[in-house]
């Protein structure tokens, strides 16, 4: 495996990305309105020695993150609202890092996934998680027009 894909997978493991999760355990399902919206990586939770209480907290944070993103999708034409919601998203990401016992590092936040963001996605994925990310001058989420 290339160094780049190892970095990528390591970064996704750090974020508890659901595609890395192999085994199925309902305890790790994040459910909003009766629908599974994401699934925590159970092996990562074990490796990070997350307690059951922390797992519940992480699931709660993912529910809030999901609802915040749904709200952003309903306000795609309102930059003020999008910027406010994206700041909440950043705080949720920091809270997740804290509960996962990871360093609080904004380089691990994929801000370009936020609804309405027009920042260059492929360039930023390539730079992930090292940083030096690019923002689009016309991004309504990440660039405030004067
Ligand atoms: Zn953006």
Overall pLDDT confidence: 90
Strand content: 5-15%
**Order of strands across the widest beta sheet?**
1-2
Bound molecules: zinc ion
User: What oligomeric state best describes the polypeptide chains here?
Assistant: single chain
Largest sheet: 2 strands, antiparallel
Q: What is the total tally of β strands? A: 2
Shape: globular
In sequence order, what are the helices and strands, one letter per element? HEEHHHH
Instruction: Name the helicity range.
Output: 40-55%
- Count of helices? 5
Task: Give the C-alpha Rg.
Answer: 16 Å
| Structural class by sheet pairing and helices | mainly alpha
Note the gap between the termini: 46 Å
Number of domains: 2
| Poorly predicted segments | none
